[in-house]
Amino acid sequence: MQSFFQVVVWPGGSMKGHSRQHVCAWVLGASLVLIIINHFIYNDLLNDTRIKSLPAATQGHQDSGQQGQARVGHQQYRDRRLVKELEDIQRQISRLAGQKAVVDAKWAVGLKAVIADLSPKMAVTNLSTWDFSARLKDMEPAPPSPGRTRHVCPEVYLGPKVDNFRFHGMEAEKCSYVPPFREVLTVVLPAFSWSPNTTTFVISQIRKFYDIPIVVISEAPNITHNMTDVTTVSYNSNGFYDGSVLNKAIKQITTPYVLVGMSLAHFDNQSSLERLVRVLDDLEHVEVAAGAARDLQSHWIHGCLQQRLADYQALYTTGYYYSKYECMYCDDLLTPFITSTKFINSLPFADTLSGPAMYREWFNKVRAAGHMAMVCPDVMFYLTSHVNMIKEDWQKVARLWNIEKVTSYTGHVHSFSCKSVDISCKDPLKRIKSFLLPPCCRAIMEQELDYLLDYGDEHNLHYELHAGSNLGAVKMGGYLPWDYDSDILFEQQKYDQWLKMRKYIKKRKCTLNVVKEKVYFVIKCPYFFLEFYSHGNVTRQWLPAEYRNTPTKILYAGRWRNVVANPGLIARNYIGFEYLKHASHWRTHSTTDIGKAKGGYENPGVWQRCEKPGHHSCYDRYPGDGNLPFLKPFLHP
User: Fold this and answer.
1) pTM for this one?
2) In CATH, what number is assigned to the domain containing residue 211?
3) Sign of torsion over alpha carbons 608, 611, 613, 619
């Protein structure tokens, strides 16, 4: 796999069979900023004008006034949505500015959709210089472009009345400039758990429609005996993973394209392989094309998935945002697919995975490399069963991706402990230089704090969440994902009583160390530490006299905890300018004089550049403002 950080590919530019070109990501980022400024400033002015020009809500104009207000409200909602889409793309681009990095093909697709929303006339302008989508029968066919190889003939649309049942309409033309299809595509059948009867039946069905090479992966080495142009790759389920065997089989292929026909139970002329090859020929930013599928229970699915990784979580959703050539853009696919042999050899399956986890990991690599996949639902494959992933399957990819929670495309939520997916909470300071602290590690810190505060409550010792813990409570309702300690303020007269918890905390394998007698001590636990500061009084002395015996409480990690008297005011005065915006922990970067003068941060809301840009928990993948991107990482505005 090529690193996310090695090469820049310009979507829509030459990729297949051509050299990859390096571009500056900041150019596209600057263009996005101009789009935002030009469109949305104009729209704000336009909306102001619309509002001012609305008829007065009198009896005679009430209906028209309400309709006008509704139109403006709809326009404002649309603008917010488009701003969010542009902001997401711009943030991903700006974090790579000035570096060599993959320009994700999805950015181009998303930007084109925004353009279409803003100006439908611009959307009909085809940006491709080589477009072989189906033409109307009265139009001249597009000529082959010099220097380009076409593997299948183009299509013509004959209209909706070719036959009564609509099984015809989009039809392939006859042409003389394409190679025989047996020189174009090879079928690979990963028959890891297929019965011999299913394997031979599927091969015979494919042969009825296509005279193309077939490679079968099977534990039965003689299963294809006497079959012409069928190769068997032997497989021992006890000795090898599916990924390594599949990679071995694909390396034998000499045709430009390969069909990975997992779970096939049947085959007929509704599984048009030419249609999928045509999509790959026509759309350079698409590297994988699949069809829909029907299983033995007669259940049909399109199999297009969207995937998001954020804050050590993965979310899979069935569906699509964009389409082209009557095919859906997807992040992942659940159905048989075609890809180029060159591409799949350059980005092989993980040789330590088997089953559906192997495909999830592979499609994640495809997306990380900036490429797109598609499902064309008019192509239908026949499967024994649809993909069913249980918790053990998801745990395999969770380990690889450093995630502790997966929401499956079925809606099932699978949660994993830090240990089960190899997430370590050791050395949090090192981690928070670039990455969010994993939620399971934050939970450990919140549990440690709960344990100590419960001790204070049980012994009637007054305390208040202070400093960074107060800030976390105000902004996140819990532990800041870029913090690595907790801060508690308590009454100095209770100092000796707090020290008595030494024995209490041994159960948690924690120790208490006095740093400054009568003023400050630290509790060190296996992964984190907690700082206790004493003052003559806690801050509730500044509450009205009637409230001083009732400390202010704030929701922290699901529990109402004592906090400084006015948490927002004290956080603002403690941190200074723009304290609601975010910045990495002060211990992870140097602070300038002007930053110190401002309260600690010169540019709040601007993250440090990540040391591993492809990771889903890099700070700079997230906005520098707002708590919802962290509390609800998959929430759309």
Assistant:
1) 0.80
2) 3.90.550.10
3) negative
DSSP-derived 3-state class of residue 406: strand
- Rounded to the nearest integer, the mean pLDDT of the chain is 82
Q: What is the DSSP letter of 614?
A: T
What are the residues whose beta carbons fall under 8 Å from the beta carbon of 9, sequence distance 6 or more?
15, 20, 21, 102, 103, 105, 370
Q: How confident is the model at residue 219 (pLDDT cuts 50, 70, 90)?
A: confident
Closest CA to 561 of 574, 549, 552, 550: 552
Same domain, 133 and 81: no
Question: Residue 51 domain-assigned?
Answer: yes
SS3 category, 513: strand
Domain-embedded: residue 295: yes
Predicted pLDDT of residue 15: 41
DSSP string covering 309-344, please? EETTEEEEEES-S-EETTEEEESEESS-EEEEHHHH
For residue 420, being part of any structural domain is answered with no
- Say if residue 29's pLDDT is above 60: no
How are beta strands 230-234 and 214-218 bridged, if at all? parallel
Give the Cα separation of 259 and 289 in Å (integer): 9
258 within 8 A of 196, measured Cβ to Cβ: no
Task: Say if residues 612 and 437 touch (Cβ distance below 8 Å).
Answer: no
Range of the structural domain that residue 195 is part of: 184-415
Distance of CA 160 to the CA centre of its chain: 38
CA neighbor of 261 nearest in space, from 231, 290, 223, 302 = 290
Helices (H) and strands (E) in the chain, counts: 18, 26
Token pair 């809606």 in the structure block, residue: 411
The distance from CA 544 to its chain's CA centroid, rounded to whole angstroms, is 49
CA-closest candidate to residue 472, choices 384, 564, 537, 410? 564
| Tally of CB atoms within 10 A around 599 | 16
> Which pLDDT tens digit goes with each residue over 345-399?
999 999 999 999 999 999 999 998 889 999 999 999 999 999 999 999 999 999 9
Quick one: 257 and 286 in the same domain? yes
3-state secondary structure of 227: coil
Tally the domains of the chain: 4
For the chain, what percent of residues have pLDDT higher than 70? Answer: 75
606/507 same-domain check: yes
Rounded Cα gap, residues 527 and 493, in angstroms: 30
Among candidate residues 391, 415, 439, the one where a domain is terminated: 415
For residue 478, what are its two tokens? Answer: 């819990």
CA 496 from chain center: how many Å?
Answer: 50
Do 498 and 530 sit in the same domain of this protein?
Answer: yes
Vertex 299 angle, CA 298 and 303, to 5°:
135
Q: Which residues lie closer than 8 Å to 480 by C-beta, 6 or more apart?
A: 468, 471, 472
Domain-embedded: residue 18: no
Helix (H, G, I), strand (E, B) or coil at 493: helix
Q: Is residue 352 within 8 Å of 241, Cβ to Cβ?
A: yes
- Does one domain contain both 324 and 457? no
How far apart, in whole angstroms, are the C-alpha atoms of residue 240 and residue 234? Answer: 11
